[in-house]
Design brief:
- By secondary structure, the protein is an alpha+beta fold.
- It has two helices and five strands.
- The chain has helices at 55-59, 69-74; strands spanning 5-8, 14-17, 22-23, 29-30, 37-40.
- The strands form two sheets. Strands 1-2-5 form a three-stranded antiparallel sheet, with no helix packed on it. A two-stranded antiparallel sheet has the order 3-4.
- The longest helix has 6 residues, at 69-74.
- The protein is globular.
- The protein starts with a strand and ends with a helix.
Amino acid sequence: MSEVNIRAIPNGPYIVEGSIQLYDSVGAKVPTEGQAKIALCRCGASSTKPFCDGSHSRIGFQAAEAANPQSAEKSK
């Protein structure tokens, strides 16, 4: 299994690098084959969800400054 890395871009998308399988909210597979890197929307304004279309810049999206490790523990 290859390594997958996910980085949050400041006030932008999540950048996912590596081979992944992506599914939408109803379980349908979203095609990502052959893409070494994808950008996933986290502002909610993209017209190409789940992918980023740059809308975060237009709407002035402000993300949290850093991850909160305690929230990850609560979700387990």
